[in-house]
Amino acid sequence: MSQPTAPSQTVGPEYRPATQLPTATVSTSVSRPNVHILAQTPQLIALLTMIRDKDTNRADFIFYSNRIIRLLVEEGLNHLPVVAKEITTPVGHTYAGVKFEGQICGVSIMRAGESMEQGLRDCCRSVRIGKILIQRDEETSKPKLYYDKLPEDIAERWVLLLDPMLATGGSALMAVDVLISRGVPEDHILFLNLIASPEGAKNFAEQFPKVRVVTAFVDQGLDEKNYIIPGLGDFGDRFYTM
Ligand code: PRP
Ligand code: URA
């Protein structure tokens, strides 16, 4: 199958001469101010290479996905607002620091989004987590909402919405509609995502310009079944059942 042209760049430590660096496919850029793509570091590209490989077994898929999820959560937290906090150290000196403003919660789009819950818990102790069950119809690719269970005070929280795959964008858009219908302000939503299609990312970012998207990689496109290409296949199947 022919693929759209992929951006590529040399990857590796800067102390090595460019002639000794391999060339790899890197993320497509998206010209939307609310879409933030992780730095295309050698580590991230190596981790993505592992999970994209069809020969990677389930245990390795889980391990390397978790590594990327951790990077996403760590970066996502940088997008939450902070306020000044001055503290005194044990040696009697003050330090002008910051603390996060307000409370957060996670919301996973089931099933694949649940894979990102542990990464969030590892960074945010006793974080509350809500669930939205949305499934894409295999024939039409249209999302269907089955169920949601969200913290009662979600309207007062910053929400980290979790789903590793953004293909057409339909599922993520539907999830944001649910959050907004529960009173969550659009600009209090942060969507954490591993791989997006360019059309899905653009569509989502245009419909919800105040939702911040933090993704590890924007791929080249969608195939005729609306799977991301080159992608990694069905994330939920590879993480939970294959
Ligand atoms: C996948 C994925 C997203 C959605 C992306 O879930 O986890 O939720 O598809 O596609 P879209 O952007 O075109 O809506 P799926 O519905 O296959 O269910 P799963 O999580 O159980 O695998
Ligand atoms: N869901 C996935 O898991 N992968 C895709 O490529 C598209 C939707």
Task: Please outline what is shown here.
Helices cover 27% and strands 31% of the residues. With 242 residues, it is of the alpha/beta class.
Structure description:
With 242 residues, the chain is α/β, with parallel strands linked by helices. The protein is built from 6 helices and 14 strands. 27% of the residues lie in helices and 31% in strands. Strands 3, 6, 7, 8, 9, 10, 11 and 12 form an 8-stranded mixed beta sheet that branches. The protein has a two-stranded antiparallel ribbon with strand order 1-2. Strand 7 (128-136) and strand 8 form a beta hairpin. Helix 1 packs antiparallel against helix 2 (58-77) and helix 2 packs across helix 3 (117-123). The model has no long low-confidence stretch (mean pLDDT 96). The structure holds 1-O-pyrophosphono-5-O-phosphono-alpha-D-ribofuranose and uracil (URA). The site of 1-O-pyrophosphono-5-O-phosphono-alpha-D-ribofuranose (PRP) has 22 residues, from strand 7, strand 10, helix 4 and helix 6. Residues 1-11 have a biased composition (Polar residues). Pfam families: UPRTase.
